[in-house]
Design a protein that fits this description.
alpha/beta, Glutathione S-transferase Yfyf (Class Pi), Chain A, domain 2, six-stranded antiparallel beta sheet
Length: 374
């Protein structure tokens, strides 16, 4: 899914930017805080409709601007499609307005990923194994929303319902509301939470074989790597996720009122990296953790490419410095097989010379991007 052009207005550090990309690796070089990650963020936004760095849309709007706009032209197999996201700054109501267009037509954010799928590998991904469960949930959900067109809307509804239900639970605890008011929000949690659980399980099944193969290629002497779902909604014999979630909510009803929070559901789940039969968190060195994370990203590429036989755009945001030469070599080989990849770095010294030689190199200065001088 090669991006031919990228246009930014009022986006983070960019007052205005117009850039034309070619095929193959695109290496973006600049010092820290120059705007490299902002460039990557704009492409994530155009793929998913949301930033990977902020939960608040208005944060991407440049200081002093009324709105942020990102637009890209994607050309694949002779077909040209255009995607655009515009986020307006906070208004009097405190919220930011967002508009999504595909080929000039207003659409939902879920219409973006079929045009531009992305796989992002960023420094914070190095915490996937030992970091917060929210990182691993976000990883799974990132795969899900690019596989399932309706997933983003379902996840948004689930989150809104969760917020409302938790608020009601606190009011019940304070004797300001009755338990009979819970049924509506519980129904939404069950309906949408079960779909999220189904989709996450399906994503794990899809990634299992590519993950094992990628890890075997990178670390042939280590035990097989798997990613297992860790849920507080365990299925009894013959139960669906919907039935199991409803049962678990009944079982925890009194405890939920005491805590003023919904204690079971996909928002409380996790995923565990397992080597052989042992979780990597119990024994893995930093090198083994990096191997597992690299294998996961390569597997994610394969899973998304299999959807319609179009490789996604790989976004590598300053990760080469985190990898040793052997792991860099595996990543370079995979980049060479892709129609296009965006690689950011503070210095080309961190990159394989062969990769640099095969790349278009761009320089980032605060507020603008230009081709590197020969």
């Amino acid at each position: 899914m090669p991006v031919r052009s990228l246009s930014l207005d009022g986006f983070r550090s960019y007052a205005r930017l117009e850039i034309e990309f070619g095929d193959g690796p695109q290496v973006v070089v600049g010092r820290n805080a120059a705007g490299k990650t902002n460039l990557v963020e704009s492409l994530v936004l155009l793929s998913t409709g949301r930033s990977h760095r902020s939960s608040t849309d208005s944060e991407i709007v440049r200081w002093g601007s009324d709105f942020a706009r990102a637009a890209a032209a994607v050309v694949d197999a002779g077909r040209r499609e255009e995607v655009e996201v515009v986020v307006h700054a906070r208004g009097a109501s405190g919220g930011a307005r967002k508009r999504v267009r595909v080929n000039g037509i207003n659409r939902r954010a879920s219409a973006l990923s079929p045009v531009l799928r992305t796989v992002l590998f960023a420094p914070e991904d190095m915490l996937l194994i030992v970091g917060s469960p929210s990182l691993r949930r976000a990883l799974l959900d990132g795969i899900v929303v690019q596989r399932e067109p309706t997933a983003m809307a379902v996840m948004s509804t689930y989150q809104r319902s969760l917020t409302q239900r938790n608020s009601l639970l606190r009011r019940i605890r304070e004797e300001q509301a009755g338990t009979d008011e819970l049924s509506y929000w519980t129904g939404l949690i069950v309906e949408h939470g079960a779909r999220i659980l189904d989709w996450r399980r399906e994503a794990l099944e899809a990634i299992a074989a590519p993950l094992a193969a990628a890890h075997r290629e990178i670390a042939p002497d280590e035990p097989a790597l798997t990613l297992r779902y860790v849920s507080n909604v365990q299925l009894a014999d013959g139960e669906s996720h919907e039935e199991a979630l409803r049962r678990r909510l009944r079982e925890t009803a009194d405890k939920e009122i005491w805590n003023g929070a919904t204690l079971v559901g996909p928002h409380r789940d996790d995923a565990a990296f397992v080597s052989g039969e042992r979780p990597l968190t119990e024994f893995a060195s930093r090198g083994q953790q990096r191997t597992a994370i690299l294998a996961l990203k390569l597997a994610e590429l394969d899973v998304l490419a299999a959807l319609d036989h179009r490789p996604p755009l790989l976004l590598l945001d300053d990760v080469f410095s985190e990898l040793d030469p052997q792991r860099r070599a595996h990543l370079v080989r995979r980049i060479g097989d892709l129609p296009q990849a965006i690689v950011t770095t503070t210095t080309t010294d961190d990159l394989d010379p062969a990769l640099v030689a095969a790349s278009t190199v761009w320089r980032v200065e605060p507020g603008y991007v230009h081709p590197a001088l020969e």
